[in-house]
């Protein structure tokens, strides 16, 4: 085994890399860790170090969350947030896949767009907030503008990497066997690029959630972010914490969902690729 | 590169940006939208607004805060990530809590920290630190976990331990992954800097841009957007340079193993 | 000086125990060059890890100069099979060789001297400032060898160090090892799965049975001190020894017992299998 083993593509899956099933002892330790965290959170506000006015104990926050979860307004806000997130991510993915495959498979296009991509990509999408407010107000489109801009680049770049990663030998083989353009795309380009695309979707999904909440906080588009902002300005500390816990749960759900999708699609992918590679 | 190839390379880099700017110009001239300002006016306004004392008053403090928060988050993330990466037991203990904390979208920390700390600069630094620390922390943990067992055995055989083991083995082999975390953290830092200023500040870049927007000073607002864009681009270029230097061995290794 | 006594190692994996090494006893004298050879999968690497103190045996002892080994001893160096992964890619060749010396707290002048001497000895004096990945596989393994020599060990362990290099390079490296062994007068334990290599290199060849592993035979290589790829390998005695070791390994695969260390061909009928007492006597010099 040589040095190639740990440095080979596909790109480093950031934090979510390999993940094995937790054996019992680890699960137990994890539960203990969570319990310790909650206990600490419960205990600190009861000491004099931090006032309970600013840091309400865990029990109070969770009670507030439970109370809140019984209201229709809360679920409306969750629905708005999820809808904006999902729609924004879907638009970004569709655009990135279409553009990425088109540009990635034509070397000239790729060469001539590289500088523009390198310039546009690092522009923080929060720079667009004032523009979004002016043009769309607190409309859903404001949120979408930020979400799509931010998550598009994550997916697009990965698709470009993926298309570039196609094995030249496999491509020549496909040509030699007279595979048509469509068959080539279906059996060679797509399977090669899929793991990259999914990495992009995973990164994009997290970014999209961040920007959805950001838009709701700053622009006031309806959703969990806007509710947090309202609760903060009325000084309702337990509610602020409760809503933050809700966004955290949403974040965990998003991460878990994308990971599950990745596992499912990549299992399918490896079998199909096995056929196509011959 | 030959002399003949030079114009071609220049065209490759400049053609599309030039075309886009021209398109923008044409669109601004053709449309009667109040919000669309042509690039010429934006450039002129940019010089007028930002090449002034405003730069020292609004831009430098923002950037300073950004870098301070980012550096603190990096130190904290690496400092906590190494022990977590080295100890499977500690990792199992902390994993569920970390999974939750990192899933909280960092911008919600802005209203929270306003409650906790108030509206001053330390709150904005705290927002940046608490939002940026997670990608650094989690990537450090993953990087430290993935230390090559043969290299670890080599260290044991040759009695390399303690601090030298940490610096020569653990941190170095985790460094590509740590760099990936730092890159994610950088874009989060910019987001947090801007929105914490938009939300809760009486100075700074984010505040200034929102002021322009509220006052319908459209060219000024555009110039602020451009400045933010430039800031993002410059920081990412500086980061890429630093990463190239620090991880030259990594690129060499990858190139070598691909050539095999 | 190196004594392995009743070494046993079992792994616990997925509910069942796997016995990698059953009962190994052998000894190495000061300044000896011994090769360990055995069928693939017979636990050679496990054995080497136990000897080097990287792994704790389930039972039995390893002792160096009478002192039990319970961690990597300070006067022992190891060359691993995976040269690409045992060198630090972020350090230069010089940095790689110098690192253990820094840990030994040697003064700078002495470190430089040792680095230069060992790099020169493996023929890489010109490559000191390159990174390992800029070198070919064989050169990388030379760096790992230079690092081991610069450490000035009394015992050098080598775990199939040439398994992943091409044949020509391999021959060069074999001669290099014999040269270094004489020049630096170390005790060398060389693990390999290649019979020719074992006979060509060793003063002694310890043949292991297949897993669960015991010592199958212990063959003294009575070839002349000066060896040469061409004349040694075509000598009749080389062919005899080679055939002997080959037969022993075939027997080992079939589960036959050892032939005794006298080296008589064939061996007794394999009625008693690998459970019998190990045949080798320790500490042969």
Topology readout:
The complex is a heterotrimer of chains A (278), B (260) and C (285).
Chain A: H1 4-7, H2 24-43, H3 58-69, H4 72-104, H5 107-120, H6 129-136, H7 140-164, H8 168-176, H9 181-218, H10 224-233, H11 237-277
Helix pairs in contact in A: 3-11, 4-7, 4-9, 6-7, 7-9, 9-10, 9-11, 10-11
Chain B: H1 5-30, H2 39-50, H3 53-86, H4 88-103, H5 109-117, H6 121-145, H7 149-157, H8 162-199, H9 205-214, H10 218-246, H11 248-259
Chain C: E1 2-13, E2 16-28, E3 33-37, H1 44-51, E4 59-64, E5 67-68, E6 76-79, H2 83-86, H3 93-103, H4 108-121, H5 137-150, E7 155-159, H6 167-184, E8 187-192, H7 195-201, E9 204-208, E10 213-220, H8 229-234, H9 236-253
Parallel strand pairs in C: 2-10, 3-8, 3-9, 6-7, 7-8
Antiparallel strand pairs in C: 1-2, 1-4, 4-5, 9-10
Helix pairs in contact in C: 3-4, 3-5, 4-5, 7-9
Based on the model shown, name its key terms:
heterotrimer; B: 260 residues; mainly alpha; MetI-like fold; 11 helices; 85% helix; C: 285 residues; alpha/beta; Rossmann fold; 2 domains; ten-stranded mixed sheet; 9 helices; 23% strand; globular
The number of strands of chain A is 0
Q: Give the spatial strand order of the biggest sheet of chain C.
A: 5-4-1-2-10-9-3-8-7-6
Output the CATH class name of the largest domain in chain C: Alpha Beta
Euclidean distance between termini CA atoms of chain A: 24 Å
Major sheet details of chain C = 10 strands, mixed
Low-confidence region ranges of chain A: 1-22, 270-278
For the largest interface, the chains and their residue counts are: A-B, 71 and 76 residues
Please write the CATH class name of chain A. Answer: Mainly Alpha
H/E element sequence of chain A: HHHHHHHHHHH
**How many strand segments of chain C?**
10
> How many angstroms separate the termini of chain C?
10 Å
Oligomer: heterotrimer
- Outline type of chain A: globular
Portion of residues within helices of chain A: over 70%
CATH superfamily of chain A: MetI-like
Average pLDDT score of chain A: 82
Provide the β-strand percentage band of chain A.
Answer: under 5%
Instruction: Please state the overall shape of chain C, judged from the principal axes of the Cα atoms.
Output: globular
How would you describe the overall organization of this protein?
The complex is a heterotrimer of chains A (278), B (260) and C (285). Chain A has 278 residues and is mostly helical. In chain A, 77% of the residues lie in helices and 0% in strands. Chain B contains eleven helices and no strands. Chain B has helices at 5-30, 39-50, 53-86, 88-103, 109-117, 121-145, 149-157, 162-199, 205-214, 218-246, 248-259. In chain B, helix 6 (121-145) runs antiparallel to helix 8 and helix 9 (205-214) packs antiparallel against helix 10. The model of chain B has no long low-confidence stretch (mean pLDDT 88). In chain C, helix 3 (93-103) crosses helix 4, helix 4 (108-121) crosses helix 5 (137-150) and helix 7 crosses helix 9. Residues 258-285 of chain C have low confidence and may be disordered. Helices cover 35% and strands 23% of the residues of chain C. Chain C has two domains: 2-75 and 154-275, 3-Layer(aba) Sandwich (Rossmann fold); 83-152, no CATH class. The longest helix of chain C has 18 residues, at 167-184. Chain C is globular and about 50 Å long. Chain C contains nine helices and ten strands. Chain C has a ten-stranded mixed beta sheet with strand order 5-4-1-2-10-9-3-8-7-6, with helices on both faces. Chains A and B meet through helix 1, helix 2, helix 5, helix 6 and helix 9 of A and helix 1, helix 4, helix 5, helix 6 and helix 8 of B.
């Amino acid at each position: 085994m040589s040095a190639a083993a740990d440095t080979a593509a596909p790109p480093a899956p950031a934090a979510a890399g390999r993940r094995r099933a937790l054996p019992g002892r680890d699960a137990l330790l994890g539960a203990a860790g969570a319990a310790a965290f909650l206990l600490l959170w419960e205990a600190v506000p009861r000491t004099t170090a931090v006032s309970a006015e600013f840091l309400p104990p865990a029990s109070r926050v969770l009670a507030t969350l439970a109370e809140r979860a019984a209201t229709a307004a809360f679920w409306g806000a969750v629905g708005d947030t999820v809808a904006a997130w999902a729609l924004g991510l879907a638009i970004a993915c569709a655009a990135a896949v279409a553009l990425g495959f088109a540009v990635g498979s034509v070397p000239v296009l790729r060469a001539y767009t590289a500088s523009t991509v390198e310039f546009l990509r690092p522009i923080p999408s929060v720079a667009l907030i004032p523009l979004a407010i002016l043009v769309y107000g607190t409309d859903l489109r404001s949120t979408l503008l930020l979400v799509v801009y931010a998550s598009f680049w994550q997916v697009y770049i990965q698709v470009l990497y993926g298309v570039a990663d196609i094995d030249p030998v496999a491509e020549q083989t496909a040509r030699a066997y007279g595979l048509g353009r469509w068959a080539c795309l279906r059996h060679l380009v797509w399977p090669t690029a899929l793991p990259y695309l999914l990495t992009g979707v995973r990164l994009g999904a997290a970014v999209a959630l961040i920007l959805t909440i950001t838009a709701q906080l700053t622009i006031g588009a309806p959703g969990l972010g806007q509710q947090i902002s309202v609760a903060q300005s009325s000084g309702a500390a337990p509610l602020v914490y409760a809503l933050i816990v809700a966004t955290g749960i949403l974040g965990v759900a998003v991460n878990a969902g994308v990971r599950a999708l990745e596992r499912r699609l990549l299992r399918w992918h490896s079998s199909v690729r096995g056929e196509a590679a011959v | 590169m030959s002399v003949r190839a030079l114009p071609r390379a220049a065209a490759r880099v400049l053609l599309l940006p030039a075309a886009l700017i021209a398109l923008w110009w044409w669109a601004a001239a053709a449309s009667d939208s109040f919000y669309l300002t042509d690039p010429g006016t934006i450039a002129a306004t940019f010089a007028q607004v930002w090449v002034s004392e405003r730069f020292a008053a609004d831009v430098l403090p923002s950037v300073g805060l950004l870098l301070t928060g980012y550096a603190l988050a990096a130190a904290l993330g690496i400092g906590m990530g190494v022990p977590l990466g080295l100890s499977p037991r500690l990792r199992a203990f902390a994993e569920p809590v970390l999974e939750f904390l990192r899933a909280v979208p960092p911008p919600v920390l802005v209203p929270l920290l306003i409650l906790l700390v108030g509206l001053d600069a330390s709150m904005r630094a705290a927002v940046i630190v608490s939002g940026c620390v997670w990608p650094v922390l989690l990537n450090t943990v993953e990087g430290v976990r993935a230390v090559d067992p043969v290299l670890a055995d080599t260290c044991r055989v040759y009695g390399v331990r303690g601090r030298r083991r940490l610096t020569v083995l653990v941190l170095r082999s985790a460094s590509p992954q740590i760099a990936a975390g730092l890159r994610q953290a950088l874009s989060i830092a910019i987001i947090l800097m801007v929105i914490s200023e938009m939300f809760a500040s009486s100075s700074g870049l984010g505040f200034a841009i929102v002021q322009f927007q509220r006052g319908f000073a459209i060219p000024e607002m555009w110039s602020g957007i451009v400045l933010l864009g430039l800031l993002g681009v410059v920081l990412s270029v500086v980061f890429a340079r630093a990463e190239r230097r620090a991880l030259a061995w990594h690129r060499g290794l990858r190139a070598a193993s691909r050539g095999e | 000086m190196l004594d392995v006594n009743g070494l046993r190692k079992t792994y616990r994996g997925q509910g069942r125990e796997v016995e990698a090494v059953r009962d190994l006893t052998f000894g190495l004298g000061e300044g000896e060059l011994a090769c360990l050879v055995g069928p693939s999968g017979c636990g050679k690497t496990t054995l080497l890890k136990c000897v080097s103190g990287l792994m704790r045996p389930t039972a039995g002892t390893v002792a160096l100069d009478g002192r039990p080994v319970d961690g990597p001893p300070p006067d022992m160096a190891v060359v691993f099979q995976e040269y690409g992964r045992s060198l630090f890619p972020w350090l230069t060749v010089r940095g790689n060789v110098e690192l253990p010396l820094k840990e030994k707290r040697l003064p700078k002048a002495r470190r430089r001297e040792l680095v230069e001497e060992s790099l020169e000895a493996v023929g890489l004096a010109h490559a000191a400032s390159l990174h390992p990945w800029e070198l070919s596989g064989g050169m990388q393994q030379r760096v790992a060898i230079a690092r081991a020599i610069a450490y000035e060990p009394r015992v050098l362990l080598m775990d199939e160090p040439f398994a992943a290099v091409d044949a020509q390079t391999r021959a060069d490296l074999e001669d290099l090892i014999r040269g270094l062994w004489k020049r630096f007068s170390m005790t060398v334990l060389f693990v390999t799965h290649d019979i020719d290599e074992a006979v060509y290199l060793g003063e002694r060849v310890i043949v292991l049975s297949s897993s669960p592993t015991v010592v199958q035979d212990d063959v003294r290589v009575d070839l002349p001190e000066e060896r040469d790829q061409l004349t040694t390998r075509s000598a009749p005695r080389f062919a005899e020894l080679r055939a002997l070791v080959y037969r022993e390994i075939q027997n080992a695969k079939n589960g036959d017992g050892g032939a005794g260390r006298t080296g008589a061909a064939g061996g007794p009928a394999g009625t008693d299998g690998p459970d019998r007492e190990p045949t080798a006597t320790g500490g042969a010099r």
